[in-house]
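Sample intake sheet
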Amino acid sequence: MIEFHLDGRSGVAPYMQLIQQVRQAMRLGLLREGDRLPTIKDVVAKLTINPNTVLKAYRELEYEGLVTARPGVGTFIARTLNEEAAAVEPLREELRGWLRRARAAGLDPESIEALFATTFRAQLQESA
């Protein structure tokens, strides 16, 4: 099951952060068809946010056809976004190694994230 977290400094609305986290988990194969999302009550308790925020995120995911709400039962993943499942795990292991090397080199989490994001964007521009 997914564990949500919110970043108040991101500038992204909380409901969008929840949506993005579900999509990411689906792409990475962490959430698969039939998996149950945490209840709205559980998310509200863990993140101390308004229930309408979670409801809005879940409704948007349902509108996109990614989840199905079953009243009284829960919200479930309706389909997958992970077409490259076989390629993901080896890449994740390589990335974990890179992250360990970055930490060993003395980079803090914010510096690692900045390095990754800028390098990623530059690579996308080169490829275009």
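Comment: The longest strand covers residues 67-70. The helical segments are 14-27, 40-47, 51-63, 85-104, 109-127.
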